[in-house]
Structures are given as C-alpha cells and as structure tokens.
Design a protein that fits this description.
The protein has helices at residues 31-48, 50-56, 73-78, 129-140, 161-170, 173-176, 183-191, 198-215, 228-241, 309-327, 335-348; strands at residues 61-67, 89-95, 104-107, 118-119, 145-147, 179-181, 251-255, 277-282, 285-286, 289-290, 293-299, 353-355, 358-359, 392-404, 407-419, 424-426, 435-437. The strands form four sheets. It has a six-stranded mixed sheet with strand order 4-3-2-1-5-6, with helices on one face. Strands 12, 13, 14, 15 and 16 form a five-stranded antiparallel sheet that branches. 30% of the residues lie in helices and 19% in strands. Helix 10 (309-327) runs antiparallel to helix 11 (335-348). The radius of gyration is 24 Å and the shape is elongated. The chain has 438 residues and is an alpha+beta fold.
Length: 438
Amino acid sequence: MLKNIILLAGLTCSTAFSANLFAENITPLPLKQRAEVIDDLLQKRVQQLLPELMQQNDIDMWVLISREYNEDPILKTFLPSDWLSARRRTILVIHKPGNGENLETLAIARYNVGEVFKSAWNPEQQPNQWQRLTEVITERNPGSIAINQSKDFAQADGITATDKELFMAALPDNLKDKMVSAEPLAVSWLEKRIEAELPYYRNAVKLAHQIIAEGFSNKVISVGETTTEDLQWWFRERAAQENLPVWFHPSVSVQRIDDPQPGHPRSTGIVIQPGDLLHVDFGITYLRLNTDTQQHAYVLKEGESDAPEALKQALINANQLQDILTKQFEETRSGNDILLAALEEARSEGLEPMIYTHPIGYYGHGSGPTIGMWDKQHAIPGGGEYPLFSNTAYSIELNNKTTFKDKAVTIMLEEDAFFDGDGVSYLNGRQQSFHLID
C-alpha cells in the first residue's frame, strides 16, 4: 500500500543529484498562465525561427492540412493553446515572400487560428475551401509547395491520403509540379529550440525530477507493503494532480542482487523490500515540452546508511557512459556515427554499454537523429543517418551492466539535455547518487 500523504503545492526535495539541482522547488503555472506562455512561445518561434528554417531548406510555401481529431503532428504544434484539436478541416499556409519580407501565415478558415494565422477565406464569396486554397497559392506563385510527407519520420508524415488526394485534385498542373516533401523543414521545426523556451524546458525537467524524488521517498513507499504497480499509479496520479499529462504510463521495476538472474529488472506486482534497487521511467508534458527521465533508488537494509559500494560504482560507470556519449556530439555528425564511436570508446574502457538516445521536444520520442535503439546497437538506416544540429534537445538514454564477483547490476539512466553546438548540458542536472529509502 502507499502511505497516506498530504500533497502540498511544493514538492519534496532530494539530495541524490549534482550540486544545486534542487536549490529551490517550483510549482507548475496555473493553466491560464500556461496558455499565455504557450501562445507567446509560438509567436516567437514563428517570427524568430521559422523564416530561417524555410530559407535553409529552400521551401517557399508550407501547406498543413488536418481534420478534427485526426491531426497532423506538425499542425498540432501551430494551434493556439485554447484549441485542443483542429476544427472541421483546418488548413494552414505559411509563405516566404522573399525580398526580406515577413512570413505570411494564413488560415484557409472562416476565422483566425489564434494570433498567428489570419483568416484568408470567406465562404460566402468562395464556398469551396480547396478552391480558395488554390487561389491563395496561385496569387503568390511560390517556387515550391511543401506538404508533410516522409518515409523516415512519422511526425513529418501527417497529411492523410484523402487530404492529399483532394488537394492534388484541386491544383492545376503547373502547381502540382512544385510539390515537394516538407520533411527537412518539418523535422527542423520540431527539433529546434529557441532561447526563450529554455527556462521553461528546464522547469519542465525540474518538475519531473521533483515528482520522482517524492515518489522515491518514505512519504510514499512503505517498505514491505508498497508494490511496483502501486508506485507506477502513484506517479500517474501525482502528475495528474499538478495538471501535468504523462505521455506514457510510468514504469517501476526492481533489481535484487541475490536474484537468480541478477541484472534483469522485474516489474509486475513486486513488493518493495530492503536491499532493492528501484528504477523508474517517467515523462510529463509541460507547456507542450516533453520530459523523459529514468532514475534509481536504493532501499536501505537494517544498519545501512548508504547504498553498497558495488552499486555506487555501477552508477559511476553509467555516468561515465553518459560522458562518453555526450562527448561525441558534434554538429552535422550523424546519429549512427555518434552511436558507433561512443560504443567503441565505452567498450575500450571496460564498460558493457547499450545506447538508445533520442530527440525530445514537442514529442517525447521526437524527430531528428536516432542514436541507437535498445534492440539495435548498430547503424540504423533513415533516422540514424540524420545529422545532429545545434539548439536541439535529447533524452540521453542508455544503460550499463556492471558485474562484480558472480553478481551483476544494470543501471538504466535517462536525462534530458540540450546541445548548443559546442557541447551538451543537462537541463536540470543528472542523477549521480541514489535516492535512499529506509
């Protein structure tokens, strides 16, 4: 069972991390203020980032089309905070006029779509929405027209077969010849972060860390009674109480050094006992930014005041693997190159590594370079060939197996980090010592 606790506005503190990580706890913004932040950041991204991305990718016009409850993953990131879905058929047009002029952001809709996209359709004058879209395109005569279609990145493949068919049927032949995939632009839009987003992203990760610290404490866990499943649902409930959606169900597992198969976590209905090494995988969404975190806690045995030295060394080894990996981050280097170089160096240092790091941002498993998968520790076609760019965020996800005597333990870590072009910095530190439960 879980202990009865009073859930205060502030979350509990932990000392299980690098210095100053929890100097002061924070609380999530009220929903209205979150909406204001989301809309402000969207405007800044469209004004500051999008013109540069369209120029870099040589795209003159970007057309995004979705119907209600079947939203294109990219279009969702352009909706205002108080739109929880598309409405009827939502068509957004982003046009780069050239000659130093500002982007045009239009909605082929009866009304504006938030503050960014201005209505460009009066159904009383032109009843056919597709025809009006064609008129808008023809009036501007762009050199290229990009739609969200992609073989390698699901989030850049959002146009449906029906919408593409209807769009193409409405276009004259001279415009059909200008159609291109928006994949490079779409991926860049998803993965790139602007400076104004970073303080909020750091807070998102801090909130996730605070909830983990609270869950991995005696306030929540009754040793000998609480199960891993109890704790999974506690994390889910705790996030919900703060209006923080989780983008996957939390997982909690246990490793026991004396297990017949040491180093293999177990998670189904296990009662937490002294000597257990606990692991959590937990991710929240805050201000449309996603987190993804894996950390460990140790349950003290009677007479213990700290985790055993062997476990502490295992964590040190996993931190070493993090350093080996992030040292390989260089702009324009492919995910495959980063993966293979990191694995080679780690193995040469005597580690037993697995690396499966991924982009993160608007989506938890974001678009960008794939740096390994848990079941593919080799070069990966498609996403693995994509290059690393600056001002992008990643979940540094990996594990390392440490063997001592006839025992083994696997430390599985995941911490969110930012690559600025010069190096990698963790958005709210990383775990360097265990949460302790007595």
